Amino acid sequence: DQSKSSVNDDKIKSLLRTVWQESKSIHHPDAEPVRLYLQSRGLDGWLPDWPSLRFHPKMQYRNEDSQVVGYFPAMLALVEKDDQAITIHRTFLTDDGRKAPVDSPKKLMPAPSNRLIVGSGIRLGNPGRVLSVTEGIETALAVIEATGMVTWPLISSTLMSHFMIPQEVEKLIIWSDMDRSFAGSFAAQKLAERAKTQGIQVEIREPRGPLPIDAKSIDWLDVLNQYGPNAFAFRSVI
Question: Helix, strand, or coil here: 170?
Fold first, then answer.
């Protein structure tokens, strides 16, 4: 039903616009929950003021049954593809910078039906000849902190494998997660193979194991917290 879906699309677009307009710079005095959250994860709370990373003071949280559970401060990240905004990723927080006490503290907003999320990423900085990518936002911030490289989070292993690499990129560095299910490694390999067919140089950098017994995965933020930035400068897997 064309008319119904376009009405719904207009609603989604207007919601995305409103949420973004209500957001503030992460340098804003009110954005303390984001800075505290990043510090609690072992990251530097001071970040470049990227236009794609923002703070929302009172983000509505709905549960799986679409009931409003409450309102929380949130870190917002703009998900884009080919310079077009697709949707917004939210990390729901508490005032003192912890993850909000909800079922899914990290959630994507819906995207309009004509904007496919597949292939997109969160643009933290402009890509040059070299682009680094990760799954999670916090992992990307760890890579940026340790290496100073432009690094884009791709949100999940599923989305990572489908990422559309910007045209100017000649070398892609994939900082993959190491997890029991191997989802991160598989996604990294898949993206690497696609990059190579496009004539792009690729490196996959995976944290050195072994996985701690009680951990489902380790990512580069864990590496930064355990071993510091020097652990990022080693030879890659491929």
Answer: coil
pTM of the model: 0.94
CA separation for the pair 9, 192 (Å, rounded): 34
**Amino acid identity, position 87:** T
CA-nearest of 141, 150, 121 to 224 is 141
Return the amino acid letter for 111: A
Contacts of 39 (CB under 8 A, 6+ apart): 45, 97
> CA-CA distance, 117 to 13, in Å (whole number)?
14
Q: Which burial class, exposed, middle or buried, applies to 119 when counting CB atoms under 10 A from its CB (0-12, 13-18, 19+)?
A: middle
CA atoms of 172 and 182, how far apart (whole Å):
20
Q: pLDDT tens for residues 175-189? A: 999 999 999 999 999
The DSSP code for 44 is -
Distance CA 22, CA 43 (A): 25
How does strand 24-25 pair with strand 53-62? antiparallel
pLDDT score, position 238: 46
Burial (CB count <10 Å: 0-12, 13-18, 19+), residue 203: middle
**pLDDT tens digits, 117-166:** 999 999 999 999 999 999 999 999 999 999 999 999 999 999 999 999 99
Q: Give the H or E element holding residue 138.
A: helix 137-147
Please check whether residue 129 is in contact with residue 120, taking contact to mean a CB–CB distance below 8 angstroms: no
Beta carbons within 10 angstroms of residue 29's beta carbon: 7
